[in-house]
Amino acid sequence: xxxxxxxxxxxxxxxxxxxxxxxxxxxxxxxxxxxxxxxxxxxxxxxxxxxxxxxxxxxxxxxxxxxxxxxxxxxxxxxxxxxxxxxxxxxxxxxxxxxxxxxxxxxxxxxxxxxxxxxxxxxxxxxxxxxxxxxxxxxxxxxxxxxxxxxxxxxxxxxxxxxxxxxxxxxxxxxxxxxxxxxxxxxxxxxxxxxxxxxxxxxxxxxxxxxxxxxxxxxxxxxxxxxxxxxxxxxxxxxxxxxxxxxxxxxxxxxxxxxxxxxxxxxxxxxxxxxxxxxxxxxxxxxxxxxxxxxxxxxxxxxxxxxxxxxxxxxxxxxxxxxxxxxxxxxx
Length: 332
Fold this sequence. Notes:
alpha/beta; Arc Repressor Mutant, subunit A; five-stranded mixed β-sheet; 11 helices
């Protein structure tokens, strides 16, 4: 049975598609760019200077392209280099293609964006305990700019284009990005008021042995993490032998467990300041220490050219200034 005309057409279409796909996979794009530059500049030295590479690198690219096409593309002279007829044909095609790509990219850049959404990635604890309660203020001030929050404890890459801004927790030093310190962090024990009223005594550090200690599973990100041991050493105290602990995978779970009266947590100030202010948590001890970690505003350097991101950044830093409450006021 012979194939129908429609079947033949589809088979031919598929064959052409496969051929184009295979060619695209093997096209030496860097070599073509270097070759086009040599033809336009009429020399390897001037092309190398424009591309910011060595002359030998340009020569190697041209050699690669000549081997790939199986044609001699350039006539190398003592003063300048000229293309062969085949080389001129290819150079014109490359120039035309680059020109079209440039025009399209320029048009896309100038076209007003219809997607005003801002995607912010940050640690879950920071999102739930600090950012979410304040985000309503941004919504009221900028209702035309929706904000999407992505929570992760991992250091995300901006290469995917999925995130606009990151609030990172650590010691800073995020090379190649725009980085600003958003806020520092102090550490001190916290617990629910009911634990002080109905539980065992909690007046001195040795009393911690009578309570369940709530622990945060902090990822290894360098430096000395904000642990109970770090707090004790920095405040010149010795922890008693702890017999009862509960470990949680996220900082917001530790805070919630403390609010629920399940034990004593090491409070990280930005994450517990609201609960201290409204009385859900109290500080049983006056001792505190500065964490080595901070919260950082991070984004690609070119991102701040965006008006919507500038607005969010300005609001975020102003929100930090507006809510600079000291936890010293909440010592029980």
